[in-house]
Q: What sequence folds into this?
């Protein structure tokens, strides 16, 4: 009896409790529609519109819980039919490629069904992104150190909706990011790539050998922007 | 009368008839006359016909089946009882298998299996000594769409349901007294119970598919149901 309990009942219990199975709503389809434009108000064709459930992590990687998928037409409009799931991490993602920002409509649908089973996202703006490639290089022969930082706008927009109403506190849309680093003789050079919406200003602040900070403002006006700083 | 009660009644009658069938047919052979009529024939009368076969479904129309599914294969199992002369009622169960060819309009899945259960009635004509031409129509039918092939194994399946209206005809060729082969055609209209946005209502409310099938027919008995009570 103990063996039966150990080798059969416990695994059955664990399988039941830890099951990851998703039960989509039977006899239900939803419609996701809208129009995609860029920052110049021009339509964006061929952008991928995908409907997900259990989409909690946006830090990268494909989410396997795909319920519906389609693409925007030449005039930027899209209309995607999808299954529906009652889940606290229901999301609609709109992305084109690395040259454009990504938009995410996220909602808790556990107790929410949209009016007429339609998510009308209206006008979604995908902003063109620039590759801001910065390169900090030590050129002086003397011993020196630099502390620098970049303040920039991230090319990502997540809007969180509760019952169809935007919750700005939980939304993260084109948020300002801040990174900083110190370089010295042991680690003198550094190169990195940031993706920044075209037209935004990147704030570069540095201090060499603990001298007063100096700030430069860099307007990103081309799709590939190389920035090199020597110290 | 529910489908279940019809099934129970038919099973009882089928069991009852099997016991009598052999003796009855031997007796009939002795008094067979060489008459053959288009509408009925005493010597070609049967009590039950059991049909087993396969079919190829074809979707059609501007609806979710015609635009979104592509027929692959199917199986059929039918039992029909001759009530009076060649007027029959029957029960059928079967399945049709489809591939999804337009996920943007249906949702992100790859396969659909439609389980069909229906009762039907019809009449069988006798155009030649070896052929039987039957026309039938469903009385009460249910369809269960099992949708599978999602992007993750955690979403095992999703179900849609529908009512079936089916109009069919078949041609049987008699190889032996109680053994035939058949070819049949059916036009199926599926009235779905799927909740959809109002602008998708026309697209999802009905699905249409045709089917062409072949298979085997086994018959039992040599008198229709009512004749058993009259004579």
A:
């Amino acid at each position: 009896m103990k063996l039966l309990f150990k080798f059969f009942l416990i695994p059955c219990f664990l399988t039941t409790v830890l099951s990851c199975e998703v039960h989509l709503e039977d006899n239900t389809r939803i419609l996701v529609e809208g129009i995609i434009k860029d920052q110049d108000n021009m339509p964006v064709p061929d952008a991928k519109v995908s409907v997900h459930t259990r989409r909690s992590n946006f830090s990268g990687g494909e989410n396997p819980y795909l319920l519906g998928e389609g693409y925007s037409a030449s005039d930027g409009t899209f209309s995607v039919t999808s299954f529906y799931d009652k889940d606290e991490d229901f999301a609609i993602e709109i992305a084109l490629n690395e040259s454009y920002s990504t938009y995410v409509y996220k909602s808790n649908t556990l107790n929410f069904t949209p009016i007429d089973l339609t998510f009308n996202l209206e006008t979604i703006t995908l902003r063109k992104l620039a590759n801001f490639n910065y390169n900090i290089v030590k050129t002086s022969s003397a011993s020196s150190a630099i502390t620098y930082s970049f303040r920039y706008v991230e090319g990502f927009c997540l809007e969180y909706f509760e019952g169809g109403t935007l919750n700005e506190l939980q939304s993260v849309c084109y948020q300002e990011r801040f990174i900083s680093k110190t370089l010295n003789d042991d680690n003198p050079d550094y190169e990195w790539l940031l993706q920044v919406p075209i037209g935004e200003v990147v704030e570069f602040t540095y201090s060499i050998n603990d001298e007063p900070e100096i700030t430069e403002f860099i307007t990103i006006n081309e799709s590939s922007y190389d920035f090199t700083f020597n110290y | 009368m529910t489908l279940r009660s019809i099934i129970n009644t038919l099973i009882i009658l089928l069991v009852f008839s099997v016991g009598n069938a052999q003796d009855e047919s031997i007796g009939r052979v002795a008094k067979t006359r060489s008459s053959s009529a288009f509408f009925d024939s005493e010597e070609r009368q049967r009590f039950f016909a059991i049909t087993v076969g396969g079919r190829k479904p074809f979707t059609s129309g501007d609806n979710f089946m015609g635009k979104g599914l592509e027929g692959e294969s199917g199986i059929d199992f039918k039992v029909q009882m001759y009530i009076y002369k060649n007027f029959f009622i029957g029960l059928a169960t079967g399945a049709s298998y489809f591939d999804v060819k337009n996920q943007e309009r249906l949702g992100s899945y790859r396969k659909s299996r439609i389980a069909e259960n229906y009762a039907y009635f019809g009449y069988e004509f006798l155009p030649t000594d070896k052929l039987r031409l039957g026309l039938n129509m469903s009385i009460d039918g249910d369809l269960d769409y099992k949708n599978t092939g999602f992007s993750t194994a955690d979403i095992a399946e999703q179900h849609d349901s529908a009512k079936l209206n089916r109009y069919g005809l078949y041609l049987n060729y008699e190889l032996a007294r109680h053994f035939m082969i058949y070819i049949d055609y059916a036009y199926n209209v599926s009235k779905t119970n799927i909740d959809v946005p109002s602008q998708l209502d026309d697209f999802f409310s009905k699905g249409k598919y045709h089917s062409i099938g072949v298979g085997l027919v086994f018959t039992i008995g040599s008198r229709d149901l009512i004749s058993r009570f009259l004579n």
In short: Chain B touches chain A through 27 residues (CB under 8 Å). The first strand of chain B starts at residue 48 and ends at 60. Chain B has one domain: 3-26+39-230.
